Amino acid sequence: MAIIDIIGGGLAGCEAAWQLCRRTGHCVRLREMRPLRKTPAHKTGNLAELVCSNSLHSENITTASGILKRELLELDSLIISSAMSCRVRAGSSLSVDRALFSETVESRLKTIPRIEILRSPVDSISDISFPAILATGPLFEGPLFQEIMSKVGEEKLYFYDAVSPTVSAESIDMDKAFWGNRYDESGQDYLNLPLTAEQYQFFREALVKAETWPLKDFERSIFFESCLPVEEIARRGEETLCFGPLRPVGLTRDRRIKAVIQLRLEDGLASAFNLVGFQTNLLINEQKRVFRMIPGLEKAEFLRFGKMHRNTYLNSPLLLNRFLEFKDIPGLFLAGQLTGVEGYCESAATGLCSALFLASRLAGCELPMLPDETMLGSLLRFLRTPQKRFMPMNSSFGLLPPLPGRIRDKKQRKLAFAERSENCMPEFIRSLNQMLRQIRD
Ligand SMILES: Cc1cc2nc3c(=O)[nH]c(=O)nc-3n(C[C@H](O)[C@H](O)[C@H](O)COP(=O)(O)OP(=O)(O)OC[C@H]3O[C@@H](n4cnc5c(N)ncnc54)[C@H](O)[C@@H]3O)c2cc1C
Q1: Could you give the number of structural domains in the chain?
Q2: 20 lies in the same domain as 128
Q3: Residue that is last in its domain, among 241, 274, 305
Q4: pLDDT at res. 183
Q5: Are residues 259 and 332 in the same domain?
Q6: Are residues 76 and 187 in the same domain?
Q7: Domain boundary among 264, 279, 305
Q8: CATH number, domain containing residue 223
Q9: How far apart, in whole angstroms, are the C-alpha atoms of residue 318 and residue 327?
Q10: Domain around 190
Q11: 197 and 117 in one domain?
């Protein structure tokens, strides 16, 4: 059996190592640089350290994250099953004791004799034994990073995440919105939400007073050097927003309108919109509270929240083939947040998929693609679909193909998505097991 190098012992790397050793019988060298070399966000030398929140989001099957977790569990995910064994009380959210979680992941990996865990940085591609998986996470830097960057081209690597919130189209009150492009009122590209002077004042006041994430030093420098969070623009003066991202000029001639919030289409199906210029450091609950004060967004369903932090990721649709392998570096597969997915579970999910793709390559067979109707399959489809501005994405109902019929009730609709994903999994698992048997025999 081949020895496979996995670079990075975070969520994706650990998941990939588990899948390869436990399910395919391959030998793995898991290479983690911490504690010898640190990152600006990790605090320990532990494998699978959760860098920020201790929540892996909802387990409820009526959420995208809940469906993803169920699919991952069906595929024997190390990360999700370990999280479940270390849970702390947090309602329907799967939240964990983070130290115990890391310990559990590491000790379960160590039960497999075919895994060697090396604690040293990998600084060059020539030091990697191929095939390999690169799972060095969103804070990737140093000599290996420079080398990969020179191979793939700087313009295909993004460094900062300045994400505006995304809301579902059906949750917008269309009676309060109008279509129009700046200086082209008959345009149909942007949905606009107008605010009177009074509404603007009310919204701005709430925005400047809202609670934000405490910034780390490395984030503070980004904050000043690149685009500003919307609340910071608001703080700089009473009128700064309406001369900045909320300027009404070219959108309306109505003198009662003080400001306009523009919503940009998120996908070709017009099922979701992002709030233009609303990159933010507001806490999630504050985003819900404050952005729902915007007339038209009172019932907004957030598919993605805004944020700003350093996040290195690649333009996967351009750089990778559909098996998450670099087109220009054959034998090197990519996993984790670096692929352009967003979130703990999503990072683990790509680790799992990358490992299965690599195993099928070694076995000389082609693993069928996960169906688009599954959350995993829809994330993979997102990673192979070229986009004008490729931005990180977490699991979301907006990524799934529409249901055949119209279901008005929201909960029923989500249940229908969950049921459809459940029905698709057995067929995939059957083909996977067939492939795994072939590899082991
Ligand atoms: C500041 C910050 C906060 C975040 N907060 C959240 C959150 O609250 N919730 C959420 O769902 N997601 C969050 N994310 C996003 C994402 O889910 C996490 O970053 C997640 O840890 C990504 O998993 P990963 O396996 O891709 O990377 P990581 O978990 O970061 O793992 C990468 C590993 O590779 C190692 N490594 C890097 N370079 C080398 C090298 N050259 N040689 C050997 N080892 C190397 C690193 O030390 C690290 O252990 C956050 C991201 C950041 C940057």
Answers
A1: 2
A2: yes
A3: 305
A4: 85
A5: no
A6: no
A7: 305
A8: 2.40.30.260
A9: 9
A10: 166-305
A11: no
Number of C-beta neighbours around residue 386 at 10 A:
9
Handedness of CA 321, 343, 105, 93 (dihedral sign): negative
pLDDT at res. 435? 86
Question: What's the CATH number where 375 sits?
Answer: 3.50.50.60
Residue 302 to residue 169: CA distance in whole angstroms: 10
Closest residue (by CA) to atom 1 of ligand 1?
A: 41
Write down the pLDDT at residue 204. 98
Residues 8 and 109 grouped into a single domain: yes
Please name which of 228, 266, 274 lies closest in space to residue 388, comparing C-alpha atoms: 266
The pLDDT assigned to 427 comes to 94
- Ligand 1 close to Cβ of residue 12 (< 6 A): yes
Same domain, 65 and 110: yes
Is the domain of 139 the same as that of 175?
no
Mark 23-61 as b/e (b = at least 16 C-beta within 10 Å): bbebebbbbbbbeeeebebbeebbbbbbbeebbbbbbbb
65: left (phi over 0), alpha (psi -120 to 50) or beta: alpha
Instruction: Mark whether 32 and 114 lie in a shared domain.
Output: yes
The residue type of 217 is: D
34 lines ligand 1 (CB under 6 A): yes
Ligand 1 centre distance from Cα of residue 138 (Å): 5
Give me ligand 1 centre to Cα 135, in Å. Answer: 9
User: Which residue's C-alpha comes closest to atom 15 of ligand 1?
Assistant: 343
Q: What is the mean pLDDT of each run of 10 residues along the chain (441 residues)?
A: 92 97 90 94 92 87 96 98 91 87 97 96 97 96 92 75 84 96 83 97 97 68 60 94 94 94 80 89 95 98 84 92 95 97 96 96 88 97 89 90 89 95 96 85 74
- Ligand 1 mutation target, pool 39, 51, 341, most atoms within 8 A of CB: 51
392 lines ligand 1 (CB under 6 A): no
- 402 to 160, 211, 265, 300, 398: CA distances (angstroms): 31, 36, 17, 20, 8
